[in-house]
Every structure is written in structure tokens, then in C-alpha cells.
Specification:
CATH class of the largest domain: Mainly Alpha
CATH architecture of the largest domain: Orthogonal Bundle
Order of helices and strands: HHHHEEHEHEHEEEEHEHEEH
Number of helices: 10
CATH superfamily of the largest domain: Winged helix-like DNA-binding domain superfamily/Winged helix DNA-binding domain
Number of strands: 11
Amino acid sequence: MSPHQQNNWLMATGAKMSMRIRDIEIIVRISETGSFSKTADMLGISQPAVSLAVKRAEEEINARIFDRSGSSVTVTPAGMQIVKSFTKMLEIYTEVQITSVAASKIKIGISPLLSGRDVTRFLQTALSEEPATFDIEFLDSREIALRTDFDIRIVIPALRRRSSLYIDFPARWIGTDNGTFIYSKQESAVWERAKYVLIEHGFRVDNVIEVNDCGYAYHMATSGAGFTPCVLTQENGFTAHTLDHYPVLPNFRLDIFSTPELAMRLRNSLIGGNL
């Protein structure tokens, strides 16, 4: 097949070619390995399946791709042009696959004020219609706000940006009234506000335990190490540990940034029976 004939064949493939992408891959791999058996081992298929793929391709394009008359497999002159074109087609197909996977991956940045149970619930209810892979990161809201790679952000207000779709979660003190304040350096703005409430109402703080994560603060408090502020949701299970005689905390606002329709679904899912 001459280069001119090859170009004509390539122009026609889009309209009439029914060749399997697997057959194209097999032919490309045979040209690389020089062996039907090695190609079969590489792709995890039988040698007869490799031979059948070559037969189908050669019959469809009406050209001999490989010379199998000797002890080894070689590519014919016409086959060289075909293999070159098949290699390009396989590269394009691979790029399309990678793009498709990336497009169906939803990256979500979430304030760790919410628990894993909360996130599980809203994924099950609000995102059940989304055929995608979810990549979730629990990060300080300030870090989430500074990044541009998230499709969905659920954060406390940061960098003066506000969302019209938000939730005001009730906040309570949880833990043990022993004079030890458990302070989270993650989402520290929330803990600073809670500390101000303590000072304003004259509550004593004998000791402070600083931890790096909101979840550690919650669980240390419920284990009896001290007391800490907590966002109360239907799922986090800390209601039994509330300290009702402590001063009232203002609600914690969480902003939702996403497409309007998805943000509304997320909001309705998170609200549940909490508000």
C-alpha cells in the first residue's frame, strides 16, 4: 500500500471501519515484540486470539500486515504504513480515555468541622446521580479557598468570599468540665471565637491542649480529656456529650461553592433534620 493509498484508506476509516480497538492494539504490540506469543503474554490473552485479531484486520483493510513465512514475524512494507497509522490511532484513543476519566473525577474540599459520617450521607443522597469518582480532602478552609483544583468546596467563610448557598449549623460545647480547653489549630478561627466566648462569660481555663485536627479535638473531649466547641449534625453522634451549662456559642456557617444545582442538592442533604 503506497502512502497515497494509505491516506485514502485513513480518510475512509471514519465512515466504514468497524475494526476493534483491541485488534489495533494487538497489531501495534506485535510490531514492537516481533512475536505473536510474546504479544499474547503481554496482553494476557491466548495466542489464537492474537492470530484471529491479525486475520480480521488484514481481511478488513485487504492488505498483509505481517510476514510470517520465516522463523520470526516481520512487518511488510504495506504493514509499516498501517502500523504507523494504528499507533497514532491507539495514542489518540488512550488520550481520550485519560481525558474521560479526568472529566468524571470530582474533587471535593471539605472543612473538617464535618464528620466522615456527614460526608458519607451527603454523597449517598446528593451525589447519587453523578457517575463519577470522588476525591475528597479534609482541609483547613483557608487552604481550600486558596486552591483552584476543587470542583466543590464546603468551607467556613474565608478570604471575604461568601456563597448564597450556606448552612448555619448549631454549635455546642462537648466533653468534660475539668478546666482543660482542647484547641484545634485546624480551623483555628472557630476555636478563637469559642475562646473569646469563654473569656467573655468568665469561664476558667486552667490548661490548654492544642491538637492539629478538629477530629482529634472532638474525640479527646468525648474521651474525658477536656472540653471543646463542636458543630452538631445529625450524623456526628456527639449530642450525648454536650455541656449545657457552658455559654452559648454562635452557629457555625459553612458556605457551599459548586454549580447552583449541585450546591442546592448538597445543602438539602446536609441540612437533613438538623436545622
